[in-house]
Design a protein that fits this description.
- The structure is a single chain.
- This protein has about 170 residues and is mainly α.
- The chain has 5 helices and 4 strands.
- Strands 1-2 form a two-stranded antiparallel ribbon.
- A hairpin with a 2-residue loop joins strand 1 and strand 2.
- The longest helix is centred in the first third of the chain and has 20 residues.
- It is elongated, with a radius of gyration of 43 Å.
């Protein structure tokens, strides 16, 4: 069974033509402000209307359509404002250790150290023989002719293989 996987889920939905809801609200609010200024100021003084409504219209258009480095203008403006008011230099003030927290070694418990011991080659051979055979093989196994297969001294660790060989 095949399912459709949604694509571009991080993109905003287009509400009015090519505009998203936020872009439409920016245009609506900016247009209402400019229209109010036009109704109140334009009949009295046209130059004052152009001086006051021009920056508002430019800001509205920038908020709606402008992108700076593939970022929407509102996000860029917010980052710029945060940059202006955040400190530019960070200073590290070195302080001593916290006096309330002191870590000390426990004097009663000294770490026991293993004594250095020299192991002879013969002792290593005996130990490897015990480890290889699981402790069940004598130190010196008798030599067997090649025609006869040697007994399996590792029966405890390989019961399935030994059962297969017997059959």
């Amino acid at each position: 069974m095949q399912f459709k996987v949604p694509q571009n889920i991080d993109m905003a939905d287009r509400i009015v033509g090519p505009l998203t809801l936020i872009q439409f609200l920016y245009l609506l609010i900016g247009g209402l402000i400019v229209y109010t200024l036009f109704s109140v100021i334009a009949p009295v003084n046209t130059v004052l209307f152009v001086v006051t409504a021009g920056p508002i219209a430019l800001l509205t258009l920038a908020l709606t359509f402008l992108k700076v480095q593939d970022q929407p203008f509102p996000r860029f403006a917010l980052a710029f404002i945060l940059f202006l008011f955040s400190p530019k230099m960070r200073v590290w003030h070195r302080e001593g250790p916290d006096p309330l927290l002191v870590i000390t070694a426990d004097p009663a418990k000294a770490k026991p150290q293993a004594p250095h011991k020299k192991i002879e080659k013969s002792e290593l051979e005996k130990l490897s023989q015990i480890l290889d055979t699981g402790g069940s093989k004598p130190a010196q196994a008798p030599e067997l002719p090649h025609a006869v297969s040697p007994p399996n001294y590792l029966k405890r660790s390989r019961p399935v293989l030994d059962a297969m060989k017997r059959k």
